[in-house]
């Protein structure tokens, strides 16, 4: 009788183990099948996956997500653009002061996040579009038309085989006589949108949530926008202390009927950082006294 009980338990154990093995093998098969399905579609830019996704475009956006942060803030009297500078070698020539902010023409500039070589191609294309319009119509190109024209080029590279999308997102700041100061953002898919304040690159989600809290639409001045930009960079950059060689700032303003773009020097950036540190120290003292 004891022998029969032992034999029955042994048989039940083997059945249970077989069921576990079958379930694990089924899960592995499903996982391998999903990987094979994704690999089948991620090598072609022109083929949709069964879920309706273009994997190469998504991978291009992923490249932007690993790039240095860039943010733009629209103020009543101008626009502020700030960017993280990752290549901080002391041997670099000071003539090429700006690493991520490009002037395109008198009324327009942009900042890029992603593959720098792709960005150089696109910024040259932006300059050509603006110059052709100026030559043809004898007036500067409207901001949105310039952005839309470049996004048509970016979208073209998502529809034809043998080409890959540009791995760059771009922030545009400009002024025209139709709508005044404007801030736009475009991504590798060719989509673009207008913003009051936005961010691209690494930790952009955290930066955008901070901008939502800090941005005051009717009261926003250029000085306030610079302070907010420093605060956001201080919180979102993966560095212990904010220094002038790690960031770059640019402003776009109107003076005497002309648009003026200015890239802030190291001393001006240092002054902004010191002011932010003082405010942060005062806030820390207030919270300490309350406790």
Give a verbal description of the structure.
With 291 residues, the chain is an alpha+beta fold. It has 7 helices and 10 strands. It has helices at residues 2-41, 55-65, 116-137, 143-156, 204-214, 222-236, 266-290; strands at 70-75, 78-84, 101-105, 108-114, 168-176, 180-186, 192-194, 197-200, 247-255, 258-263. Strand 1 and strand 2 form a beta hairpin. Helix 3 packs across helix 4 and helix 5 runs antiparallel to helix 6. The longest helix is centred in the N-terminal third of the chain and has 40 residues, at 2-41. The relative contact order is 0.14. Residues 1-13, 15-25 and 30-35 have low confidence and may be disordered.
Provide mean pLDDT, rounded.
85
Oligomer: single chain
Q: What's the end-to-end separation, in Å?
A: 75 Å
Report the C-alpha radius of gyration, rounded: 26 Å
The residue fraction in helices comes out at: 40-55%
Order of helices and strands: HHEEEEHHEEEEHHEEH
Question: What's this entry about, in short?
Answer:
With 291 residues, the protein is an alpha+beta fold. The chain contains seven helices and ten strands.
Secondary-structure map with pairings?
Blueprint: H1 2-41, H2 55-65, E1 70-75, E2 78-84, E3 101-105, E4 108-114, H3 116-137, H4 143-156, E5 168-176, E6 180-186, E7 192-194, E8 197-200, H5 204-214, H6 222-236, E9 247-255, E10 258-263, H7 266-290
Antiparallel strand pairs: 1-2, 1-8, 2-9, 3-4, 4-5, 5-6, 6-7, 9-10
Helix pairs in contact: 3-4, 5-6
